[in-house]
Amino acid sequence: MSPPSQHLVNALLQAGTVTTQEADMARHIPMSYDVCVEADSGGHTDCGIPTVLLPAMLEMERAKLERSFFKRCLSKVWEETLHYLSSRGREKDKEIAQANPKVRMARVLRWYFAYSTELAFSGSTEDRVNYQVHTGPALGAFNQWVKGTALEPWTQRHVDEIAIALMKATAEHLRSIYERFPLRGLG
Asked: In whole angstroms, what is the distance from residue 101 CA to residue 78 CA?
């Protein structure tokens, strides 16, 4: 999941197995992107125990989490979490989190929630994939309402066009209500 060691690349270059350009590219290209594990399939892996691989798999997932989402090591996230709790006078919450791994994980996930929200507010274009944009059921209802219209693709939505569509729909709705109630005593 990482590029080959420089020692291996140099050996291949000296042996003429790779070109200079390929050796340069090898510094940036992982040897693999994922791992598939097979155990006790009834063939050559009979009696294989996949649980021995779990620590390595968990470590790989943790590294991916740190690199792709947290942008820092988990220990740094935990340090920032503890600092936040201390700065707010929440020593009891801090003690509980330190004593209970599930609470600790919940606190780390809350840290990510705050981090990703701050990213969205900052407008930083470097890490847009981690933006957290808070919405509620109204956005889901709006998406259903615009389905099949020119406003369905979010990239085509503009505030002025949305406002006009809302006002037209409101006018139609009010008209349909008024039509159900005949006006008496007029004219």
From this structure: 12
**Model pTM score:** 0.51
Domain end (from 97, 113, 134): 134
Specify whether 108 is located in the same domain as 85. yes
- 65: tokens are 């989490």
The tokens for 146 are 């615009």
Q: Each residue of 104-143: pLDDT tens digit?
A: 999 999 999 899 888 888 888 888 888 887 777 888 889 9
Domain residues for the domain of 110 are 71-134
Q: Which of 97, 118, 134 is the last residue of a domain?
A: 134
pLDDT digits (tens, 9 = 90+) for 77-108: 999 999 999 999 999 999 999 999 999 999 99
Does residue 127 sit in the same domain as residue 147?
no
- What is the distance between the alpha carbons of residues 61 and 80, in angstroms, rounded to a whole number? 21
Contact yes or no for 65/74 (Cβ under 8 A): yes
Query: What is the C-alpha separation between 51 and 48, in angstroms, rounded?
Result: 9
